[in-house]
Specification:
The complex is a heterodimer of chains A (671) and B (167). Chain A contains nine helices and 34 strands. Chain A is of the alpha+beta class and 671 residues long. In chain A, the strands form seven sheets. In chain A, strands 27, 28, 29, 31, 32, 33 and 34 form a seven-stranded antiparallel β-sheet that branches. In chain A, a hairpin with a 2-residue loop joins strand 17 and strand 18. Chain A is elongated and about 120 Å long. Chain B is built from four helices and nine strands. Classes of the chains: A alpha+beta (671), B alpha+beta (167). Strand 30 of chain A pairs antiparallel with strand 6 of chain B.
Chain lengths: 671, 167
């Protein structure tokens, strides 16, 4: 018994350790132990997607997804889209500002009874690096059956943006998630979940990681003449296409001096600092080669975007660099072969108001722009909601086309309008449109005095004189900067016709569909469609005529016989309006002078007075427009009294028409 | 045995079936031609050729006064044809059969009168001594309806004197 009592004190540390170790395990476990293990990573992600009190309000449908408004998010290396989904399989598409889309594999694992997660790479192996994500859409067989939640951009292993529903008119609700650290040590080792997944899978398959590989000569063709760069050129170097750093990567270079410091600039504001050549090293033949180990903790998956060098001792030969190469497993996989361009002073994209601001975009309006990334993230919510009364942003990709995002020589982009490179504004004719603000720079105006030009009280959006396309740019188009959304009002339709005369062998169809020809007296109308003074070519026009015999005051049976014609290059369609005098023949007829005289006589003896109410339906930029007018062909008044005056050819038919009126056919959602 | 219903359930089911039968009997009442004629406007229709229908109206003396000839769109069991085209030769045959030259008389004029091409509709009136033959067709598709009016016969109250022949 005494012995038993004396053993307990000895066992106490063991018991304590058993209890204490799990408590401290969370922080003591290296992150690699989690991120290199797919199962552990899954468990970690599950912890990220725990249901929260917000879940009920952040569950989106496919339709909701299209209504998401957010400022462009510059895609950084390894960025991934994180989505939790439930319901039926669907396809997800990310829209970029340059018009490209990233189509993700179908979320075929969607189940109606459980939430599943999907992680989709956005940088697409560097191709979409620095492109701007502007919208998300999804398609599904039954869109209503698909639910989405916790839609996030995952960056550096942490969700930086979460998109939630547009909660009220004009107020984009984008929630920024606070930074969340992995429950482990060295949580910056892996920049993001997608890379972590890849690394975890690779490690699980090979068990190899960060094994130094001895350098060896690169086989193959001889290297081209080395490009020599000055320190200034090195400092202005911008590497757009550097691959993510992997285990065993080295940076090779040759320099002509040893008294310098080198800082390798990486993505995510991670740098490799103070690289010095070993002391006492002397150049041979004027050059000395160096190999800089890139495979360091915390930068796997990062990319080299630039370098900063500083010559320590003044004077002497200028500091020069050459043969800058990226070496992987002993092979050169990237060599600097072209002269770098000077870094622009401005990155070209300056979000004036950000919901929330992308921390990767330098914002000159922020005084303390030198804040660290984590500081920026911490300040994000405040910055993002400083302007709560701003209207919503659109996800239309081209709306956010900036001037310097691409070197595209085509300046005609959004809505086919010219993007002015100097001002960054689109010229819509009547007004300039600011793609960054998603607003026109001046209020709408009309030729005639109007308190609110183009106001439509059925749609309050029309009262906003700065908005684009009734604040619905995905559906509406604007051709001239006027009257947002109502392109029908910009259409001018004119009807012209020659003086009526004998019309011979007008082609028609016979009862069996074969060609036929009739002749008579009348005219051919030309209906011209113009928008902003330009002909509307290739527009399908549906004719819905109703003809009335003014002599008998009865309608004649041609209603409900719509025909569709396409406008010519000149924006015209033609119609024949004639009193027919000859039977329908299979072949064109050769009419003698007597024949023509007889036909002319018919027009002077047989009263004719018919009016056709014409309704022409056509679409402009997706809007349905109707043009209505009436045309009358007659040789007698409504009492049957024949005209006495005749046309030059002896017929006495007269043609008249009312002015065409173009109106927009109200869509269902506007009724 | 597993699916045998209890007696009470049987009685209830029989009652429901009886009620359903009565309801069906009531709902199918008034389906004879006479019943329909009291409810709807009967027309007199004939199939002149396979797929070509004539709807006739009559004068007080029982003579035909108007014949509207059009294609039939419903062709069980082969399908549906929404076109309204009639071969030109068939059209001539039908006119000659319904209004032979001795009956229709001579054409009043070499030229057509009151005919027009307006609003995409080609309306042609062939005027004879005793009949007026009208074709209304679509200028672009050729779809057509042929109408024969007997000028010296007055249709009785716009209603046919004979009941539908499809008894």
């Amino acid at each position: 018994m005494k012995l038993r009592m004396s053993v307990w004190p000895c066992l106490l540390p063991v018991v304590f350790a058993v209890i204490a170790v799990p408590v401290s395990m969370a922080q003591s476990v290296p992150c690699a132990a989690i991120t290199r293990n797919p199962q552990a990573l899954d468990a970690l992600l599950d912890s990220y997607s725990k249901p929260t009190a917000l879940d009920s309000s952040t569950t989106l449908t496919v339709t909701d997804l299209e209504r998401l408004r957010f400022n462009p998010i510059v895609i950084q290396p390894g960025d991934a889209l994180y989505v939790e989904y439930r319901g039926e399989p669907f396809d997800l598409t990310a829209h970029l500002a340059n018009g490209d889309v990233i189509g993700f594999d179908s979320a075929s694992k969607a189940r109606p009874d459980q939430w599943r997660k999907g992680i989709y790479p956005l940088d697409m192996f560097g191709r979409n690096l620095n492109q701007k994500l502007v919208g998300l859409t999804a398609t599904a067989k039954n869109p209503a059956q698909v639910s989405l939640r916790n839609i996030r951009i995952v960056r550096a292993g942490k969700p930086v943006f979460e998109f939630v529903e547009l909660i009220s008119y004009g107020r984009p609700e984008v929630k920024t998630i606070s930074t969340r650290r992995l429950p482990c040590r060295g949580n910056d080792e892996y920049p993001n979940v997608a890379v972590a997944y890849a690394e975890a899978n690779r490690f699980a398959a090979t068990g190899e990681f960060s094994t130094p590989v001895p350098a060896r000569e690169t086989p193959g063709t001889p290297a081209p003449a080395p490009l020599t760069l000055t320190a200034q050129q090195i400092n202005s170097l911008v590497l757009h296409n550097a691959p993510p750093i992997q285990a065993g990567d080295n940076l090779l270079m040759r320099v002509n001096r040893t008294d310098f410091s080198l800082e390798i600039v990486l993505t995510h504001q991670k740098n490799i600092m103070n690289v010095h050549p070993p002391e006492g090293t002397q150049p041979k033949n004027g050059w000395i080669g160096g190999r800089i180990k890139l495979d360091r903790p915390g930068i796997i998956g990062e990319r080299i975007v630039g370098m900063k060098v500083k010559q320590i001792a003044p004077g002497g030969a200028p500091l020069l660099f050459r043969t800058i190469q990226l070496e992987r497993e002993g092979r050169v996989i990237l060599a600097l072969a072209s002269r770098p361009e000077q870094k622009p002073e401005n990155s070209g994209f300056d979000p004036p108001m950000s919901y929330p601001p992308d921390p990767m975009i330098p914002n000159p309006h922020v005084a303390n722009a030198s804040l660290s990334r984590s500081d920026l993230l911490r300040h994000q919510p405040d910055t993002g909601f400083l302007a709560p009364k701003l209207p919503s942003y659109s996800i239309s990709p081209m709306l956010f086309q900036s001037t310097t995002s691409t070197g595209d020589p085509n300046h005609y982009k959004f809505q086919g309008k010219e993007l002015d490179a100097e001002t960054g504004l689109y010229n819509f004719g009547a007004r300039f449109y600011n793609p960054a603000l998603s607003r026109f720079m001046s209020p709408d105006w009309s030729r005639g005095p109007a308190p609110v030009p183009y106001a439509n009280f059925a749609n309050p959006q029309s009262l906003n004189l700065y908005s684009f396309g009734l604040n619905n740019p995905m559906s509406m188009r604007d051709s001239d900067g006027h009257c947002p959304g109502d392109d029908c009002s910009k259409v001018k339709v004119t009807v012209t016709a020659d003086t009526p005369s004998l019309l011979l062998n007008v082609p028609v169809k016979k009862a069996d569909g074969s060609p036929g020809y009739v002749s008579g007296a009348g005219t051919v109308t030309t209906v011209t469609f113009q928008s902003n003074g330009k002909p509307m070519a290739g527009v399908d026009v549906k004719e819905s005529p109703t003809t009335k015999d003014n002599l008998s005051n009865s309608s004649v049976p041609n209603q409900a016989n719509p025909a569709t014609k396409a406008t010519s290059d000149a924006g015209t369609i033609h119609d024949v309006v004639m009193g027919v005098i000859t039977p329908n023949t299979s072949q064109p007829q050769n009419f003698s002078t007597d024949d023509k005289a007889g036909m002319t006589q018919v027009t002077t003896t047989e009263p004719y007075n018919r009016t056709t109410d014409q309704t022409l339906t056509f679409s402009v930029n997706g809007q349905t427009c109707q043009c209505t007018y009436s045309e009358t062909l007659s040789n007698a008044n409504s009492s049957g009294n024949l005209n006495k005056s005749t046309n030059p050819d002896g017929t006495n038919m007269k043609f008249s028409h009312t002015d065409p009126v173009v109106q927009r056919v109200k869509d269902k959602d506007q009724k | 045995m597993l699916f045998q219903l209890p007696m009470q359930t049987k009685i209830l089911t029989m009652g429901k079936i009886s009620l359903l039968s009565i309801a069906l009997a009531i709902s199918t009442a008034g389906q004879t031609a006479t019943d329909l004629a009291t409810k709807y406007h009967p027309v007199s229709a004939y199939e002149l050729r396979p797929g070509i229908l004539m709807t006739a109206r009559y004068a007080d003396d029982g003579q035909i006064c108007e014949a509207v000839i059009e294609t039939r769109h419903y062709h069980p069991p082969t399908g549906i044809d929404l076109r309204s085209t009639i071969a030109e030769s068939t059209e001539r045959e039908l006119i000659d059969e319904l209004a032979p030259p001795p009956i229709r008389g001579k054409e009043t004029s070499r030229w057509l009168k009151h005919s027009y091409l307006q609003g995409g509709i080609l309306h042609l009136e062939h005027d004879y001594e005793n009949v007026l033959i009208v074709t209304d067709g679509d200028q672009n598709s050729g779809d057509e309806i042929l109408t024969i009016h007997w000028k010296k016969r007055t249709c009785a109250n716009s209603k046919p004197t004979a009941v539908a022949s499809n008894k």
